[in-house]
Amino acid sequence: MPPSIRLHNTLTRRLETLEPIEPGTVGIYTCGSTVYKYAHIGNLRTYLFGDVLHRTLEYLGHEVRYVKNITDVGHMRDDDHDSLHGEDKIEQAAETEGKTPEQIADFYTEAWLEDERLLNILPADVMPKATDHVPEMIDITARLLERGLAYEVDGTIYYDVSAFPAYGQLSGQRVDETHAGHRVDVETDKRDPADFALWKRAGEHRLMKWPSPWGAGFPGWHIECSAMSLKHLGERFDIHTGGIDLKFPHHEDEIAQSEGALGHRVVSIWMHGEFLTMADAKMAKSTGNVVRVADLPEMGHEPIAFRYLALTAHYRSKLDFTADAMHAAASGLARLRRAVASGATDDQSVDLAAEPIASYRSRFIDAVAEDLAIPRALAVAHEVASAPRLTDRQRRRLLLDFDRVLGLELDAPVAGEEAPLPQGAAELLERRAAAREARDFATSDALRDELAALGVEVRDTAAGQETTIRWT
Ligand code: AMP
Ligand code: ZN
Hints:
This protein has helices spanning 41-59, 89-97, 101-118, 134-146, 223-233, 247-262, 303-311, 323-341, 357-368, 374-386, 392-406, 425-437, 441-453, and strands at 6-9, 14-17, 25-30, 63-68, 150-153, 156-159, 196-201, 217-219, 237-243, 267-273, 276-278, 281-282, 319-320, 456-461, 464-469. It is of the alpha/beta class. It folds into 3 domains: 20-276, Rossmann fold, CATH 3.40.50.620; 296-406, no CATH class; 425-469, no CATH class. Bound molecules: adenosine monophosphate and zinc ion (ZN). Adenosine monophosphate (AMP) binds at residues 31, 33-34, 42-43, 45-46, 242-243, 245-246, 275-276, 282-284. Zinc ion is lined by residues 31, 225, 250.
């Protein structure tokens, strides 16, 4: 039996002990990216939270079925969410970039997954695409119509929020308040501003559209996650995650759809991660307040240092991205890696169940099993890194065991010792090698100074130039 784990359920606003519907296996659904633009490190903080949950459950001995979707249709620009002429973000990007919607979705999906790889986020077991689940979305919509929970207006189907009494239970919004965040002057034919679209009639210029019993159209934003979660995890599953802004309307609407169609509870625990901020404002594409994973090396950091930074805050607390915080994260990471590097690699013979190792391990487990208290778990890792009563081998064994949750590649070389080169350094090194070949030592020395300015120290050995990178 895996040790028990308590998780904060947004629905009940309490910590609850996870009781898997199918003992030993935990089903998790995470709302994935809308693939019309590059993901920023704020989005990735939310996926890192899902990854830590995934890894923690596996570490504790559960089998996990992890589903993370790709939103490649239907997500409207926020400000005209349910208006009759709203533009689909992906179609809009296709128009701007002169590509097809599929090309846009494929390109940004690949970019997002590459960012996830760089942050050591484990791949999900299933990554369903919304566009592959349109028939399922139509089925649920038809079922909601049959059950009197939806109505049609001219080829568009709206959910009738007043017919689902539990509406608002997740976000705490009352139905009469739910339109407060929506623009009131938006042109719409809904009966009530709180209602939301399940299916929309396709306008004349719409590229992505499908036949349906109500004519050609396309899905609303929320129905896709009902369709993909029910299909890939079944009619009841354990955990659903996303960023805090998805609580309303996205997840409130998903509950109304899935539970309305099935007539019973579907998700046991809803978990939401807080925002990454920068200059104390939410990191958001719309305000241009963004940093991408690809920007980190130019800032002098390897991407995993951002993973470390994300681990220093609890997932339900805001985290501010600053240069100082990144420096501190990079040095914390280097410290753990150094402790691992000092141990012999035959660490597998060290018994994790023997003292004094076992008590560190049980403190680590207590932390992760208490609503993913990763900052506390990280503090245990740092204690291990310097505990005088542990041998180097024991230290290495324990830290690499913790790394199954932390995902920091603690057995990688310490940054600065064998890390990727900063931008422009490779070309300088090439030019310097050529200068040395030509015995032009003045140029070679000048290039050495240029490299030093980038943080790259060069030594000349019989085998050629060797480099050390100083991550500033
Ligand atoms: P999107 O691609 O806009 O659907 O967002 C993908 C995920 O990122 C969602 O779970 C959002 O809640 C989350 N998200 C958006 N902005 C931030 C932020 N600044 N910090 C953390 N998560 C965010
Ligand atoms: Zn979703």
